[in-house]
């Protein structure tokens, strides 16, 4: 496949139209992303997507890993693209064209390796809105793949800083309507700083219980809420009433604020951690050869500091964790890797918990992640779907999408953060590829590393004699059986495995939503998925604290925070 693609690009490059992009003098090292779109509904840079409706993109490394920097970059038929793989395949017509240069920096890692990566600038690893990234305003052009005339672009604009804007956590924390309860901490992690070879910080939103100031002798349980990067607290916490006609989810932040501040919910501390990093908007909260010791940093450094400052009880029986999607995987992994530090994990629609179902790929039995072949036919492996089964994306296209956004695992998107978290570090300092992003060939030696270190089902099976007794009453999962990313398949595999356990027999709970897509959180069947999702924290907190009180050791403080 690689050879065929190379031959096609070579054959078409002689007559395909080119785009010449002039970079500013500050853009010496990074990755150029050039985007074509057919309409003006939003800027082209905002229309790139992993699903088939995506705008057309091309990616070029500049000045990285021994490569030369240049002030002008040519994008032509040889440049790898997505959804179309070559510029020569773009039909003649009028398009809006925009370039973005994702600026990289050198990281001198603590182990002596040096890598080029895009540091997060407070935006949560979004290349198309990262402060300091050069870009151009969209330009309407007529493109003809057979023309010899070059289209010329100049990246003469720069994305603005976040500091002092409505997205700045310090500005959000200063809101007088919520400041009594909502605090923000910027925490320097010594473990992460050592790993990355530079000062590295975690952001921590701390939501204090109602009555915290009025009960200075009280100490409180801690609930760690896991989620993707957000500038503000997750779950949403706002004193601003929703606009008329807002959806249940849109109004959830105000409802949560009302319930939290009027004594209708248990008195706990809620913690949401911003742990974006050079590979993604989230670290997956485990120790990783490539992303760093985020599990240790959060559990051994940050959480003790938060509990010390805000009167946390500071014991495993009085902690719980919850989250959905990435946060669902993190909640389960946190409970499994720190079994005595937490007393309950509540995960919804978790990322793959069994690599037999890595979304729709079986890493152990498939030889290729993009296609399954029979004796006389083949079928592409689907990646995204609607609940009715309609396919929205295949794995080959999703990996091509990420390859356009960044080579060597630097896309800052979903497949590559899994690779960064789960893989060993390669000799070049970057994550060892679990599969070839162009051909789909799976590297079984890397898969074995994944199995041993991060396949949660495999770890639970291997270590059940010691883990099982420590996880009684603690594992709770929910997922829609029409999950957009096929994540329900891995959850079913995990349940089958846990149902077969003995000594002890697992009491993990599972709830499935028939026909429900991604982000299903379980809940009473008489309410819609959206209604149950909107009040998920309110449903979980009483369950969490009831279990804490029931299982607290003799003499534990189960009263000072109940008022």
Key attributes of the depicted protein:
5-stranded antiparallel beta sheet, Rossmann fold, alpha/beta, 26 strands, 13 helices, globular, 563 residues, 25% helix, 8-stranded mixed beta sheet
Average pLDDT rating: 95
User: What is the 3D form?
Assistant: globular
- So how many helices? 13
Strand order of the largest sheet: 13-14-16-15-19-20-25-26
The helix-and-strand class reads alpha/beta
The CATH topology of the largest domain is what? Rossmann fold
Task: Explain the overall architecture.
- By secondary structure, the chain is an alpha/beta fold.
- The protein has 3 domains: 2-158, no CATH class; 169-354 and 455-475 and 522-551, Rossmann fold (3-Layer(aba) Sandwich), CATH 3.40.50; 357-452, no CATH class.
- The protein is built from 13 helices and 26 strands.
- The strands form 8 sheets. An 8-stranded mixed beta sheet has the order 13-14-16-15-19-20-25-26, sandwiched between helices.
- The longest helix has 16 residues, at 294-309.
- 47% of the residues are buried.
Q: What's the short version?
A:
The protein is built from 13 helices and 26 strands.
Write the layout of secondary structure elements.
Elements: H1 2-12, E1 19-22, E2 30-37, E3 56-62, E4 72-75, E5 81-82, E6 93-103, E7 105-108, E8 114-117, E9 134-135, E10 139-143, E11 151-154, E12 157-158, H2 169-173, E13 182-188, H3 190-196, E14 201-207, E15 222-226, H4 252-261, E16 269-274, E17 287-288, E18 292-293, H5 294-309, E19 319-324, H6 326-337, E20 345-348, E21 371-373, E22 378-380, E23 382-385, E24 391-394, H7 395-405, H8 414-422, H9 444-453, H10 456-467, E25 475-480, H11 487-499, E26 509-513, H12 529-534, H13 536-551
Parallel strand pairs: 1-11, 15-16, 15-19, 19-20, 20-25, 25-26
Antiparallel strand pairs: 1-4, 2-3, 2-6, 3-5, 6-10, 7-8, 9-12, 13-14, 14-16, 17-18, 21-22, 23-24
């Amino acid at each position: 496949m690689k050879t065929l693609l190379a031959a096609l690009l070579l054959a078409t490059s002689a007559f395909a139209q080119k785009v010449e992009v002039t970079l500013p003098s500050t853009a010496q090292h990074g990755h150029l992303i050039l985007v074509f779109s057919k309409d003006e509904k939003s800027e082209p840079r905002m229309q790139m997507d992993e699903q088939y409706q995506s705008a057309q993109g091309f990616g070029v490394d500049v000045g990285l890993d021994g490569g030369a920097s240049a002030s002008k970059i040519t994008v032509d038929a040889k440049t790898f693209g997505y959804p179309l793989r070559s510029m020569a395949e773009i039909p003649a017509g009028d398009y809006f064209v925009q370039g973005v240069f994702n600026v990289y920096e050198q990281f001198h890692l603590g182990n002596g390796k040096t890598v080029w990566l895009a540091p997060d600038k407070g935006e949560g690893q979004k290349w198309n809105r990262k402060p300091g990234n050069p870009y151009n305003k969209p330009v309407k052009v007529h493109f003809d793949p057979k023309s010899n005339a070059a289209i010329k672009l100049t990246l003469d604009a720069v994305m603005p800083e976040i500091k002092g804007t409505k997205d700045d956590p310090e500005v959000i924390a200063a809101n007088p309507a919520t400041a009594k309860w909502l605090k923000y901490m910027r925490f320097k992690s010594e473990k992460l700083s050592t790993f990355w070879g530079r000062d590295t910080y975690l952001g921590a939103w701390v939501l204090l219980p109602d009555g915290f100031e009025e009960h200075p002798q009280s100490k409180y349980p801690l609930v760690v809420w896991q989620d993707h990067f957000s500038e503000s607290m997750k779950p949403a916490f706002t004193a601003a009433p929703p606009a008329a006609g807002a959806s249940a989810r849109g109004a959830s932040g105000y409802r949560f604020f009302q319930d939290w501040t009027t004594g209708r919910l248990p008195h706990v501390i809620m913690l949401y951690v911003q742990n974006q990093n050079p590979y993604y908007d989230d670290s997956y909260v485990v120790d990783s050869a490539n992303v760093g010791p985020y599990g240790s940093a959060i559990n051994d450094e940050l959480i003790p500091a938060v509990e010390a400052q805000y009167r946390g009880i500071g014991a495993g029986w009085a902690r719980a964790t919850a989250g959905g999607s990435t946060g669902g995987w993190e909640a389960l992994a946190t409970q499994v890797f720190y079994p005595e530090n937490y007393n309950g994990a509540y995960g919804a629609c978790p990322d793959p918990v069994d690599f037999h179902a890595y979304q729709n790929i079986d890493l152990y039995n498939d030889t290729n992640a993009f296609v399954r072949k029979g004796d006389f036919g083949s079928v592409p492996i689907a990646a995204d779907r609607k609940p009715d089964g309609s396919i929205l994306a295949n794995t080959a296209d999703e990996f091509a999408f990420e390859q356009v956004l960044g080579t060597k695992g630097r896309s800052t998107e979903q497949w590559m953060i899994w690779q960064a978290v789960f893989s060993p570090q390669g000799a070049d300092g970057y994550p060892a590829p679990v599969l070839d992003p162009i051909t789909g060939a799976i590297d079984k030696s890397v898969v074995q590393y994944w199995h041993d270190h991060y396949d949660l089902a495999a770890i639970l099976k291997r270590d059940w004699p010691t883990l099982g007794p420590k996880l009684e009453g603690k594992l709770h999962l929910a997922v829609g059986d029409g999950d957009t990313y096929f994540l329900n398949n891995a959850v079913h595999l995990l349940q089958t495995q846990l149902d077969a356990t003995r000594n002890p027999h697992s009491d993990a709970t599972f709830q499935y939503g028939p026909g429900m897509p991604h982000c299903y959180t379980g809940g009473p069947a008489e309410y819609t998925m959206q209604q149950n999702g909107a009040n998920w924290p309110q449903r979980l907190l009483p369950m969490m604290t009831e279990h804490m009180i029931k299982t607290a050791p003799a003499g534990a403080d189960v009263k000072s925070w109940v008022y």
